[in-house]
Amino acid sequence: MNFLLMTVLVAFRVLGRNRMRSVLTMLGIIIGVGAVIAMVSIGEGAKAAVQAQIASFGTNVITILPGAMTTTGVRTGHGGAVTLIIADMEELRKIPGVTDVGWARRDAMQVVHENKNWFTTVNGVTPGYLVIRGWSTVSGDFFTQADNDTAAKVVLIGHTVAENLFGPGEDPVGATIRLKNIPFKIVGKLIAKGYDTRGSDQDDVVFIPFSTAERKVMGTKFLGSIGAGFLSAETPEQMAQIVDEVKRVLRQRHKLRPNQDDDFTVRNQLDTAKIQEGTSESMKLLLLAVASISLLVGGIGIMNILLVSVTERTREIGIRMAVGAKRRHILLQFLVEAVVLSALGGLIGVGVGVAGAKAASNIAGWPAIISGDILVIAFGFSALVGVFFGLYPANKASRLNPIEALRYE
Amino acid sequence: MSLIVCRDLVKTYRLGEMEVRALRGISLTIEAGDCVAIMGASGSGKSTLMNILGCLDVPTSGTYRLEGTDVSTLGGSRLAEIRNRKIGFVFQNFNLIPRTTSRENVQLPLFYRGMPASEQRALALRALQRVGLADREHHHPAQLSGGQQQRVAIARALVTNPAIILADEPTGNLDSQASREIMDTLTQLNLEGITIILVTHEADIARYAHRIIMMKDGVIQSDRPTGDMFGARPAPQETGA
C-alpha cells in the first residue's frame, strides 16, 4: 500500500515534468468522458421533458376519434357522416377497467373580455373529460354535470388565454367573457400545462360544457355527435385489453361487416409514450457509441505516449532495475502512470461534461439531468481505459533487459 | 567464508548464427573488505564478468556464491532483491535519473525496499553526507558537476549498506582532479570496510586496488597484488567528508 502510494506520487511528478504532453494525452479522455456525461445528461433531460409532456396529457388515456385513419394520417371517414356519438361513449363506460369517460368537440373562435380579445380554441367538454386529461384549477372550480345538463353559460379559461385577456395578477374568476357575443361566466382558471409533445400550447384554450357548445355556440348537424371521446383506464396494464374491447363494441354498434374498415380510430397513450421513449433510448445509445469511440481513441493516445515514454526512459528503467526494482515494480509504475493520466483526464472530463450539459441546457432552454451514476460510470470507465491501454507499454517496460537498458543511449 | 566464490564461470551469447564465448571458465575468490581491480582490453570479458558479479546476469554454466548463497541459478525477481540488498553500482556515465533531485536518486534503492519515506530521507541524507554532498540534496543532476554527479551515484550505491560496490570505469568521464576525488572517496569507503570491485582499463585507477585481475579473451590472465605490478598504493587524502 505504502509502495503503491509512493508510486502514485512518483507518477504525478513524472507527468508534471511533461505537463503539456500530459494534458494533450489526457485530451482524448477528457473529451470522451465529457461527451458521455453531457450527452447522457441532455438525453435524460429530454426524456424527462417528453415524459412530463406525455403525463400532462393525463394518465392511462385512451382517445377515440371519429373516422378511420390510414398509416399516413389521412382521415378516410365518410364526409359528413356521423361516426361517433354520445350513446357510443355511454356504452363504452360499461367496459370493465374504465374509470372515467368524457367527450369533447372543438372550434376556434374569438373570445372577448371588455376591450381585449383573443383568438383561441373553444372546447365543449364533459366534466369527465377534465378529469381524464388531468386538468385542475388554480382558482375557482370545474363546471358540474348539472351545468352540462342545463347547457349553462359557464367557462373555464386556460392560462394563456387568461394572460391575454386579463392584467397580471388579476383573478378572472367571476368575470364575464363573450364567445360569439354570448356572455359566459368564468368559473375557474386552469393550471398551466405548457406545450404538448407536438409543440402546441395546451393552455391556449377555454372549456365550456359540451351541451352548451352543441346547442348554443357551435351548432351541430346531428345532436349527440362528438369530436373526440376519451376513456381512462384504471391501470396501464388494462389499456391494451380495453382498446380491443372498445373496437369490438364500436364495430358492433356501427354495424360494420368483417370486411369493412373501422370508421373510428382508437389511440392508446402508452403507445405514444413507448415510441417517444424508444426514440430517446436509441438516441442515447447512438450518443454513447460515439462517446465510447472517443474514449477508445483517447486510450490509444495514452498507449502511444506511454510507448514513447518507455523508449525515452529506457535508461531510467535500467537504473531502477539495477538498484533492485523487480519486473512488477516497473510494470506497476507505468500502469500507475497510465491510470493517473486517464483518471485525471476522466476527472477533468467529468467537470467538462457537467459544465457542458449545464451550458447546453442554458443555451437551448433544454433541461439537463446529471445523475451521479453516470459520473461514477464515466470516471470508472476512463480509469479502466488507463489500465487496459497501459498494460502493453508497462509490460514492454518491465521486460527490458537491465544490461541493455543501462547501455541505451 | 569468502564474500565471492566463482567456479568455472562460462557465459555464451548467441549473436545470430554465431556463438560468442564471453567468459571461458573463470574461477575467482574475493574476500570481504578487499579492493579488487578487474582490467583488460575491450572484448576481454570484463564487462560480462562484472554483470554476473553484479547479479544483472547469470552465467551459462559454473557457480557464483555471494556470501554463501548460490546466485547463479536465481530468477529475475530474486536477483533484483540481491542487487537491492548486497550490491551498489557506480557507472561510468553516472546513471542518475534526470530531473530528479540528488536525494531522490539516492533514495531509489530504499524505495524498492518499501521503506517508509521518512526513513528513506534520513538514510539518503546520511549517505550524501558521507560523500560530502549534504548541501546538494535538492540539486538535479544537470545542476551538478561530473564529479559531484558521480559522488551522488556513490551515495546511492552505499545507501543500502551493501556488501560490495561495483564500479564500472567510475572515472571514465571525469577529469584527473575529479577522478582523484572519486577514487579517494572509494578508497575511504573501502577503509570503512566495504568491498570494492573496480572495472577499468586505466592503470592509474587500478593502482588504488589491493589486487589486480587481468583478463584477456574470457579468461583470467593474471591475478596479483597491486604492489607486484605498480608499487605502493596512493595514500588516500582527506576528502573533507
Could you give a short account of the major beta sheet of chain A? Answer: 6 strands, mixed, barrel
Give the count of helical stretches of chain A: 13
Second-tier CATH architecture of chain B: 3-Layer(aba) Sandwich
CATH top level label of chain B: Alpha Beta
Shape of chain B: globular
Can you summarize the main beta sheet of chain B? 6 strands, mixed
Query: Could you say how many structural domains of chain A there are in total?
Result: 2
Question: Number of domains in the coordinates of chain B?
Answer: 1
Mean pLDDT of chain B: 88
Report the order of strands and helices of chain B.
EEEHEEHEHHHEHEHEEH
Quaternary structure type: heterodimer
Structural class by secondary-structure content of chain A: alpha+beta
Taking pLDDT < 50 over at least 5 consecutive residues as the criterion, the unreliable ranges of chain A are: none
CATH topology name of chain B: Rossmann fold
| Percent range of helical residues of chain A | 55-70%
Q: Distance between the terminal alpha carbons of chain B, to the nearest Å?
A: 32 Å
- How does the overall form of chain A come out from the CA principal axes? elongated
The main sheet of chain A orders its strands as 2-3-8-5-7-6
Features of this protein?
heterodimer; A: 409 residues; alpha+beta; 6-stranded mixed β-barrel; 13 helices; 10 strands; B: 241 residues; alpha/beta; Rossmann fold; 4-stranded antiparallel beta sheet; 8 helices; 34% helix; globular
